[in-house]
Amino acid sequence: MEFVNPEGLRLDGRRPTELRQIRAELGAVAKADGSAVFEMGNTKVIAAVYGPREVRFEYSMANFSTGDRMRRPKGDRRSTEISLVLRQTMEACIMTHLMPRSQIDIFVQVLQADGGTRSACINAASLALADAGIPMRDLVTSCSAGYLNSTPLLDLNYVEDSAGGADVTVGIFPKLDKVTLLQMDAKLPLDIFENVMQLATEGCKAIATELREVSNLMKEINIVGEHKAIGISARGIKSYARWFRLQLCPDCCYTQFLSP
Amino acid sequence: MEEDGDVVVTPGEVLGKSSDLKAGAGAYVSPQDHAVYASLTGFRRILSPPPDAPDQRPTVEVTGHKAHGPVPEPGSIVTARVTRVMARMASADIMCVGTKSVREKFSGIIRQQDVRATEIDKVDMHLSFHAGDIVRALVVQQWFQLVGQRCNAHRQGKLSKERLPRLEDDEMK
């Protein structure tokens, strides 16, 4: 099958080094301490963060739960593996030593899967953590890249992902320039692997600038809300905010949820 | 003097070198390159050091939009509401730490021997506390299992100023 046509375009019309369209939104889950929706093309993931909260019981829940709405008997292998990957990636970035004996729950749910779900999960979780105000070393971002038709391709969609070629998922700390996650589920010659990984890293950095923008924008909205809370309208604050949280007074814990 | 910046930073952004700046809340120093990074999303503020401080570097801090509520820790003075009185102890919900109200629930225990300084074994908990009483208390110990926070409370009227430092001394041992 031809994944890159003679004009150099992919099945969905992208160039080999082009990301899919990214959309992100903070504060989608009103009850959570922090939450985000992250979309890359048709892949859509929602993440909610609760905590840091006191650990009250001896037994502990799984820190992550992924999967779809089907009740699965006891976490299938795929979601267990993704949970583990997500957990390790997030643990590396959260400054856990500042919150001893506390628990942070991150719930990630894939709403639409079109390839690159674990990257999208990491990006969504990262945004949700930033929204929750949990101290982090850096805003972790993740992106995948593959190698099909002797071309390195950035941000594989489902068709490209299931074509059987190599799929390299990279997670980085963009500002610190460190790799936190690297997965590949096929074999590649070393020189090609380096190219593919380089491409995925570039993708991560591009996503990082996008995430920072979303994060900054929401910050401004929240500050406006904090100072003059009553009667604010969300109109004119771009389309990022669907729900946002207003904090009236830090001491009285009163919060109000508005929709635009 | 403090500079109230309009600069919004996100986690991982470089705020300066650790030789020029001290990392305050919401910032950290990376051991690898000795740079100061932000760890929260929020406004950057640079605070000048007090003129008599030995370390004359200004402190940079990032104030996030979602400030976490205060958390009681050993040594903090809390205001608590008594929820249940038993023969040897009373349980209480912590409402304020210092002057700030808590965001989430913390519960504590006032033990019989911690109610007053003298004749501690003759304290009658039922005469000392009622459910619903508001008490000011010193947190003596933290307990992280089933009981969330273990606190040591004094009935408001019985709290004497001499008593509090003594408790802290006890705690040091």
From TrEMBL, chain A:
One of its GO terms (cellular component) is nuclear exosome (RNase complex). This is Exosome complex component. GO terms for biological process: nuclear mRNA surveillance; poly(A)-dependent snoRNA 3'-end processing; rRNA catabolic process; U4 snRNA 3'-end processing. The keyword tRNA-binding does not apply. Keywords: Cytoplasm, Exosome. One of its GO terms (molecular function) is RNA binding. It comes from the Eukaryota. Transmembrane segments: none annotated. It comes from Morus notabilis. Belongs to the RNase PH family. Its main location: cytoplasm. It is found in: Cytoplasm; Nucleus, Nucleolus. The keyword ATP-binding does not apply. Residues 18-135, 138-203 form the Exoribonuclease phosphorolytic domain.
TrEMBL record, chain B:
Transmembrane segments: none annotated. InterPro entries: Csl4, EXOSC1_C, Exosome_cplx_N_dom, NA-bd_OB-fold. Residues 8-46 form the Exosome complex component N-terminal domain. Residues 49-75 are annotated as: Disordered. This is Exosome complex component CSL4. GO terms for biological process: RNA processing. It is found in: Nucleus, Nucleolus. The keyword Endoplasmic reticulum does not apply. One of its GO terms (molecular function) is RNA binding. The keyword Cytoplasm applies. It holds the Pfam family EXOSC1. Coiled coil: none annotated. GO terms for cellular component: cytoplasm; nuclear exosome (RNase complex); nucleolus. Residues 101-140 form the Exosome complex component CSL4 C-terminal domain. Keywords: Cytoplasm, Exosome.
